[in-house]
Write a structure and sequence with these properties.
Elements: H1 2-16, H2 19-24, E1 30-34, H3 40-45, E2 53-57, E3 72-75, H4 79-85, E4 91-96, H5 106-115, E5 116-126, H6 132-145, E6 149-156, E7 164-171, H7 181-185, H8 196-202, H9 207-218
Parallel strand pairs: 1-2, 1-4, 2-3, 4-5
Antiparallel strand pairs: 5-7, 6-7
Length: about 220
């Protein structure tokens, strides 16, 4: 049963790890996807007409499948070094999806901050809200790296052990503003899970998480 759910809820994970960041950003053009388990996140990112370049790093995807799309760049080797060597402000969005332990280091978050433009966004997959210690540790690491504003997303994910998934949205500078509601309602592509109401609902946090985050930000 678990394998069946994982097969059918992969589209939820892919949509919630991409569209919230892309519709929060004013018009992202350059995206990097770290350690995508398959091509599902890449496919969602390529649906956005504002995107001009997407790098897929340390992935299991097939380079030839997307060779006809000039926006796609396959970068399977040494993804952490690739990020560290980027020119400052080279990217608009970094998607960090289920990365190995090395990627979770403070250095990764610091390099992400440097590589992002001023209004750049990092979206980092993390443990669900029902493992608050792990969630808080990831939140603290991203905050410590110097990101200005953070949001936690949580969403239904039936195949996961807790039945839900979570991610952290981190803005390099400033504060998160209103979502691009009109663009979400009038998007030029179909989604199976993501919409404006789902995005707004994913930002609603239970009280114990709010208290933990208050303690982090006030300490």
């Amino acid at each position: 049963m678990s394998e069946l759910l994982n097969e059918y809820d992969n589209f939820i994970h892919a949509e919630m790890m991409t569209h919230p960041a892309l519709f929060t950003h004013a018009g992202a053009k350059k995206i990097a996807i770290f350690d995508g388990k398959n091509d599902s996140l890449l496919l969602e990112v390529l649906k956005h007409p504002s995107v001009t370049d997407v790098w897929q790093l340390n992935a299991l995807g097939d380079e030839e499948v997307y060779s006809s799309d000039p926006r796609f760049h396959f970068q399977p080797d040494k993804p952490i070094e690739w990020l560290a060597q980027l020119e400052p402000a080279s990217l608009d969005i970094i998607i960090s999806d289920n990365n190995p332990t090395a990627v979770l280091s403070n250095t990764f978050y610091e390099n992400s901050l440097r590589a992002l433009a001023d209004n750049g966004i990092l979206i980092r997959q993390c443990i669900s809200q029902f493992n608050p210690l792990r969630l808080k540790a990831t939140y603290q690491a991203v905050k410590k790296a110097g990101f200005s504003d953070l949001q936690i997303l949580h969403f239904t994910l039936p195949g996961s052990p807790a039945g839900c998934g979570a991610a952290i949205l981190a803005l390099k500078n400033g504060s998160f503003k209103r979502l691009r509601e009109k663009e979400i309602y009038n998007k030029s592509f179909a989604t199976r899970y993501y919409n404006f109401d789902v995005h707004k609902a994913s930002l609603a946090l239970p009280e114990f998480i709010r208290e933990d985050l208050h303690n982090i930000t006030s300490s």
